[in-house]
């Protein structure tokens, strides 16, 4: 069985009954096999779904209601515990299937390595793909302690696959000196510390292009999202991240897929991290589903 149905109906609020009628498919990638500091993001997808029950179905930001779009929550991919290579192979296979059906995938992580197999599948369908990456960390390492499959490597892998000039990173405030040197010398776009203002400047240049959006919850300051594996002080506010999602939604880019990763609920007994994450997912659903 590919999907975990054990969550007994705990799906994202107002999820439609079938995949066939959906334009956007929500799916979980419960993997934290390469976490280098605090594991636990494999529990993120389920807790985001649970928190969504407290949401209003209407977005006053976008003046849209969830009943106006067709989306389906497929549940979590049943990934083999501890096996990073097989897990990413399974994710890639699933995304291929969704794209063959012309669905927009909206993934819930899980550690950030799960974005890598999604991008591989996306690039096959969209050879002119651009990536908007919103994160505290550069994720530009070639390996972490000798392991190339790591949550610190997906954006470097993406640069090597689609070309660094097609990668746009925002909010970055942590990484090795070599990562920042690579960003500067390779031709990729990296905006340190800030998200909204540099994003507004970049979006017109991406008009008409297929874009994949990946958001690591740790781009937020730990005051707004303590429930993550590698929290980093000095981040943006929840309001700023909502603003970034809305800027992308209102732009002329063609969002073809997205994910929200690195929610680790165990480190946030107040649940504010997953509550915020569920709201971001609602806004992504309403803003990115055309």
TrEMBL record:
<protein>
    <recommendedName>
        <fullName>Agmatinase</fullName>
        <ecNumber>3.5.3.11</ecNumber>
    </recommendedName>
</protein>
<feature type="binding site">
    <location>
        <position position="112"/>
    </location>
    <ligand>
        <name>Mn(2+)</name>
    </ligand>
</feature>
<feature type="binding site">
    <location>
        <position position="135"/>
    </location>
    <ligand>
        <name>Mn(2+)</name>
    </ligand>
</feature>
<dbReference type="InterPro" id="IPR020855">
    <property type="entry name" value="Ureohydrolase_Mn_BS"/>
</dbReference>
<feature type="binding site">
    <location>
        <position position="218"/>
    </location>
    <ligand>
        <name>Mn(2+)</name>
    </ligand>
</feature>
<keyword id="KW-0745">Spermidine biosynthesis</keyword>
<keyword id="KW-0479">Metal-binding</keyword>
<dbReference type="GO" id="GO:0008295">
    <property type="term" value="P:spermidine biosynthetic process"/>
</dbReference>
<dbReference type="GO" id="GO:0033389">
    <property type="term" value="P:putrescine biosynthetic process from arginine, via agmatine"/>
</dbReference>
<dbReference type="InterPro" id="IPR006035">
    <property type="entry name" value="Ureohydrolase"/>
</dbReference>
<keyword id="KW-0464">Manganese</keyword>
<comment type="function">
    <text>Catalyzes the formation of putrescine from agmatine.</text>
</comment>
<feature type="binding site">
    <location>
        <position position="139"/>
    </location>
    <ligand>
        <name>Mn(2+)</name>
    </ligand>
</feature>
<dbReference type="GO" id="GO:0008783">
    <property type="term" value="F:agmatinase activity"/>
</dbReference>
<comment type="similarity">
    <text>Belongs to the arginase family. Agmatinase subfamily.</text>
</comment>
<comment type="pathway">
    <text>Amine and polyamine biosynthesis; putrescine biosynthesis via agmatine pathway; putrescine from agmatine: step 1/1.</text>
</comment>
<dbReference type="InterPro" id="IPR005925">
    <property type="entry name" value="Agmatinase-rel"/>
</dbReference>
<keyword id="KW-0620">Polyamine biosynthesis</keyword>
<feature type="binding site">
    <location>
        <position position="216"/>
    </location>
    <ligand>
        <name>Mn(2+)</name>
    </ligand>
</feature>
<dbReference type="InterPro" id="IPR023696">
    <property type="entry name" value="Ureohydrolase_dom_sf"/>
</dbReference>
<dbReference type="Pfam" id="PF00491">
    <property type="entry name" value="Arginase"/>
</dbReference>
<dbReference type="GO" id="GO:0046872">
    <property type="term" value="F:metal ion binding"/>
</dbReference>
<keyword id="KW-0378">Hydrolase</keyword>
<keyword id="KW-0661">Putrescine biosynthesis</keyword>
<feature type="binding site">
    <location>
        <position position="137"/>
    </location>
    <ligand>
        <name>Mn(2+)</name>
    </ligand>
</feature>
